[in-house]
Amino acid sequence: MPGFDTLDFDNIEVFNLLMNGIIAIQPFVNFRGVVYVDQIKDQRITPAASKLLTWLQLFCGSQFLKNITIVTTMWDELNEDGIKDKLRRFDNWRSEDMLGKFLSHQSKVYHHGLVENENGYRTLNVDRQKEERAHRAREMISRCYKSAPDLRLRIFDEMDRGVLPVETSASKWLISGIITSDDEPNNGACPQTADGGL
Questions:
Q1: Residue 181 lies in a domain
Q2: What range defines the domain where residue 125 resides?
Q3: Strand partners, 114
C-alpha cells in the first residue's frame, strides 16, 4: 500500500486502506510491532515527519511504542563523509523531543543497509547486495518481534468502545492536526495542536 505524504494519495485514503487491511486480518494475527521507515534527509525532523510520528503514537498508544522500530534507509552509495553526515542528522532527530519520546519508550533503531564493523561502517548496495540486505532485515524483524510482548494497538481499544475508524484520534489528527484532551495519550507525549512545526 502507499505510504503517507505522497502526491498521488491523500493521507485519509491511505489511512482507510490501512484500516481496511488490518481490520480484515485482525481476527487471524497478533500485531507484534510497527516499522517506521524514513530516509532522514533533513537536518531536523520536518513538519511532515512530526505529523506522522504523532499519528503513529495516536494509532499505537504509548504502551505499544516499545514495539516500534525506526528504520533509516538510503545508506547505499554514501561515502565515509556521507555516512558521518547522515549519522549526525539522525543524532539531531534523536535529540528532538518527538523522536526522543519514542526512544525513551524503548522504540528500537535499525539502519537498513548500513553495517558497523571494526573499521567503522560499510554500506550494502541496494542492487548488488540485496540478499544480504534482506537477510539482515529479516534478522532484525526476528530479533525485535519474535518475543515481543502482545500489546494491543490503541486504535483497536478506541474501536472497541464504538468509535468508528474515521473518528479515532489517529484519524482526526490526520484530518485536522488537532488533538483534544480526550484524544491525548496518557503520558502527554503528543502535542496538543498542530502549532509548533506543522
A1: no
A2: 31-152
A3: 123
Query: Can you tell me whether residue 69 is helix, strand or coil?
Result: strand
Which pLDDT belongs to residue 1?
67
Contact 124, 76 (CB under 8 A): yes
In a domain, residue 126? The reply is yes
pTM (2 d.p.): 0.85
For 157, what's the count of Cα atoms within 13 Å in the CB-facing half-sphere?
Answer: 15
Domain count, the chain: 1
d(CA 107, CA 64): 9
Cell 464504538, located at residue: 162
User: Which residues have CB under 8 Å from 16's CB, separation 6+?
Assistant: 165, 166
Reported as a single tens digit per residue, the pLDDT across 143-192 is 999 988 888 999 999 999 999 999 999 999 998 887 766 665 544 444 43
- Residues in the chain predicted with pLDDT less than 70, given as ranges, are 1, 180-198
Q: What string of H, E and C letters represents the secondary structure of 106-126? A: CCEEEECCEEEECCEEEECCC
Q: Is 82 within the bounds of a domain?
A: yes
122: β partners: 115
Quick check: is 16 in a domain? Answer: no
